[in-house]
Amino acid sequence: MDLKKALQIALDFEKKGHDLYKIAAEKSSLPFVKTTFTYLAAQELQHIKDINVYLAEQPGDMKLSGDRPVDVKQFFNTTIGQFKDKVTLNQSDTEAYETALALEKDAFNFYKEQLRATDDEKAKKFFKFLMEQENSHFVLLENSFGFIKDPDHFFAEDEKWFFEG
């Protein structure tokens, strides 16, 4: 697959992600879910912008401005601090999380495949960046889904390392 076609597919992944997250945020009645999906929708918009810049063949020293894993972790920790009350996910929220996790995983795998397929160093750097972004999103979704399903168990698992010595 040529690079331009791969980037068009990448753009489709990011647009699907943005649309999914925007709709999930609008539909949910839970502030925690709304906050998480609104955050992810904004991240997908940034990825769309980055891919469009790359497609315009201006990748030279382009600044890739997605979140670092530490930023995503900080967002999550701040968010769970705001929403410690136990809530019940409805079917729509559960489906949104499951669909989002699958989409992030598929996007990650696609970017990984493209990274392996290209010899262009700038393209490799770009696909690696996109992989890191999708991985961060997957971890955020997985953690927030786990937290909202069972906050008490989540905190016990999160702090388990402390007690294991």
Helix content: over 70%
Low-pLDDT sequence parts: 160-165
Shape, per Cα inertia axes: elongated
CATH topology: Ferritin
- Average per-residue pLDDT, rounded, comes to 79
Tally the structural domains.
1
DSSP summary, beta strand count: 0
What kind of sheet is the major sheet? none
Element-by-element helix/strand order: HHHHHHH
Supply the number of helical segments. 7
Query: CATH homologous superfamily - what is it?
Result: Ferritin, core subunit, four-helix bundle
Structural class: mainly alpha
What is the CATH C level class, in words? Answer: Mainly Alpha
Instruction: Output the radius of gyration.
Output: 17 Å
Alpha-carbon distance between the two ends: 49 Å
Q: Give me the CATH architecture, please.
A: Up-down Bundle
% residues in beta strands:
under 5%
Molecular structure report:
This protein has about 160 residues and is an all-alpha fold. It has a single domain (about 5-60, about 65-165), classed as Up-down Bundle (Ferritin). It has seven helices and no strands. The chain has helices at about 5-25, 30-55, 70-80, 90-115, 120-150, 150-160, 160-165. Helix 1 (about 5-25) packs antiparallel against helix 2, helix 2 packs antiparallel against helix 5 and helix 5 (about 120-150) packs across helix 6 (about 150-160). It is elongated, with a radius of gyration of 17 Å. It starts with a helix and ends with a helix. Residues about 160-165 have low confidence and may be disordered.
